[in-house]
Amino acid sequence: MDLKGLKKVELHCHLEGAVRISTLTELAKAKKIDLPYSDPIKLKKSLCVVEPLKNLSDLLERLLRMRDLLDSEELYERVTFEYIEDSFNQGVRLLELRYNPVFAAEASPSLTLDRIHRGILSGIERAQKKYKIGVGLIGTLGRILPMNIVKQEMEFIIANKDTFCGIDLADKEDGFEPKPFAPYFEKAREAGLRITIHAGEINVPGASKNVYDAITYLYAERIGHGVRIFEDKKVMDLVKEKGIVLEMCPMSNWLSSAVDGGHPAHPIKKYLDYGIKVTINSDDPGLFGSSLIDDYKILAEHHGFTEKEFNRCNQIAFDACFIKDKEKYWV
Ligand SMILES: [Zn+2]
């Protein structure tokens, strides 16, 4: 099967975790960071997460190191352009990129939320002059940040709602349940932003309840991952009945050990057969040293996905995309 040739929609990709290895290497060299530059395999291992980690904290630590390399508006312009270019070359025709404004700005005192946003918008503009691809931006709130910072992020995203199509909540789930964030998502909804929430991602107590709460209290139309909903049939049925879309990321879920038993144990095919709307995404391809095509390969090799299943998932993603209808290219 020609996986690259399939027309694709990607809904779930974090810009801070989507930087090309070649760009990361160049930036790390410029900052004189001590890495094994002469050995490509060792270099990839030091920059990326290439095998399952014991917990999400390890993964977040690497993401932090990667984020710190992006310390200017110009770099945000560049990495945005590069990711859109790479996406287009993998068959993606509709792409939603997300980033966490405060998390991104922590890389350098000279960065402001406005500068980062301006850099990203310029990168999108440059890419769209070259490639016929629809691109939407989602603003991510960090659930581990102090509430006053989360409020600041939410206000920034709402103030820029003409250039954001949606809002998200991400980071560690255990100890950070969705309900306390309800007032922020109420405001975002009133402002016309579409809502997706990371929940049920990791094998921690309460993961499936977080999916229930994200739908019930935060108005989630889509769930980032939702892998663990098999724990509770009531949650599976709620997701199915409400037509909630799961943004599933097989490579990421394997690396974060979201389910025991490796790739074959991932529930994506089970959910699809159950009538749940699932989509295929890369999450943090730069952080994993992978690409969206690798996620498609996993599904073809371990779950028997054929063109039929891939097209079905991409049609679901097309319909669930937050990008305005007039900007939805599908060519
Ligand atoms: Zn994510």
Question: Which properties best describe this structure?
Answer:
single chain; 331 residues; 47% helix; TIM Barrel; binds zinc ion; 8-stranded parallel β-sheet
Structure, explained:
With 331 residues, the chain is an alpha/beta fold. The chain has one domain: TIM Barrel (Alpha-Beta Barrel). Helices cover 47% and strands 14% of the residues. It is built from 15 helices and eight strands. An eight-stranded parallel beta sheet has the order 1-2-3-4-5-6-7-8. α10 links the parallel β6 and β7. α4 packs parallel to α6 and α7 packs parallel to α8. The radius of gyration is 18 Å and the shape is globular. The two termini are 20 Å apart. The structure holds zinc ion.
Summed up:
The chain contains 15 helices and 8 strands. The chain has 331 residues and is α/β, with parallel strands linked by helices.
CATH class: Alpha Beta
- Ligands present: zinc ion
Count of extended strands:
8
CATH architecture: Alpha-Beta Barrel
Task: Determine the N-to-C terminus distance.
Answer: 20 Å
Number of helical segments? 15
Q: Give the strand content.
A: 5-15%
